[in-house]
Backbone:
């Protein structure tokens, strides 16, 4: 198990690498790695059990070596606007060092296990991969 | 202008607050704030000038007080798969402390200026707001 100090060091590195602070954006763009956004729509959106299984599956992906950070989410209750899609059931953001980090992730046994065990739960999945502009 | 030390402190805080390290996810979920994902499709996707104007506009949003972090992206050249949507022109992730932080952002003069100056550039925009699961 990682020490708290090791975690904080990792978090700090991730912060510096993946997220530019608002203040810093005024003068420079901070380098950031590949962002892998995924949105899932459950076949049974009202099923708490299905959602729990999906979220547990998403969280299991964090153990894959090339995954540097993860954010697991559900729709926020922000203001309803035409452009806001809150119809999805769960979201994930995975951070990788670079595009090359994606390939071993896709092929990793934990990712294959996730797809094998959870893909029957969703009716739709949309992926957006982004690199720093 | 912020000092480098202030920036690093902000980055470290953001990292701890918004991104759980892969290692830490094995034992606990780290609290994380509201994630505001936005994807833009340009009317003229081949126009470098239009893309540059849109990206500059997105970056200007970082100066809004309730924006705690930003990632500005373009599609990555990851493996082509049916579920991957790489048709968008630009992406942004904005981090807020909570759902309440979104409202002053939407109403902020810099956000209104961005919409006024850049909305003619895009044909479609999709927003996903997520809170930690």
Residues:
């Amino acid at each position: 198990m990682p020490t708290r100090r090791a975690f904080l060091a990792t978090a700090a590195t991730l912060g510096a690498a993946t997220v530019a602070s608002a203040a810093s954006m005024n003068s420079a763009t901070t380098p950031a790695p590949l962002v892998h956004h995924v949105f899932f729509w459950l076949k049974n959106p009202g099923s708490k059990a299905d959602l729990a299984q999906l979220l547990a599956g998403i969280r299991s992906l964090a153990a894959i070596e090339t995954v540097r950070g993860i954010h697991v989410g559900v729709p926020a209750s922000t203001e309803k606007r035409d452009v806001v899609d809150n119809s999805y059931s769960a979201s994930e953001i995975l951070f990788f060092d670079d595009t090359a980090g994606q390939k071993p992730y896709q092929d990793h046994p934990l990712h294959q296990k996730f797809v094998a065990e959870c893909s029957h739960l969703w009716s739709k999945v949309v992926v957006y991969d982004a690199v720093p502009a």
About this structure: Confidence is low (pLDDT under 50) at residues 1-32 of chain A.
